[in-house]
Amino acid sequence: MVALNMTSEAVGIDSESLLFAKLQEHKFEIPNLISRRLYNDRRKITSSLCNTIRERMAKEIDGDEDCFCIDSKPIEVCRFSRSKHCSMGKKNFEKAPSIGYCASQGVYYYGYKLHAVRGLSGVIHSFDLTKASVHDIHYLK
Length: 141
Hints:
Order of helices and strands: HHHHEEEEH
Helix content: 25-40%
Low-confidence stretches: none
Strand content: 25-35%
């Protein structure tokens, strides 16, 4: 179960329907394949185990680096002109999207910012989603 889940993520299959469509092509080679519903239930149960395995794999791949890079990417929720009408997060201020500026594209946007911390070897150590108005320097604090 864990191997099937991690292999599907590694090859870029992020949809259960796509995964099971691909597996049906090989149904004679995998005679005891579980159902899609059982796969989904067991995947949820084993999610913490998968995260532990991912963390150990990342630690083995990247070694013990002490230099890291941080980068961010804008995640637009809706068009800037529609931001006043967006009801997402209005009840919880900490989780609400905000207005941010993307310097590489030279535009303002309404949404979130995805921050990723990676080692020099390219392995992502951590990532986080913040309001769009949070600058990378402030995120590091």
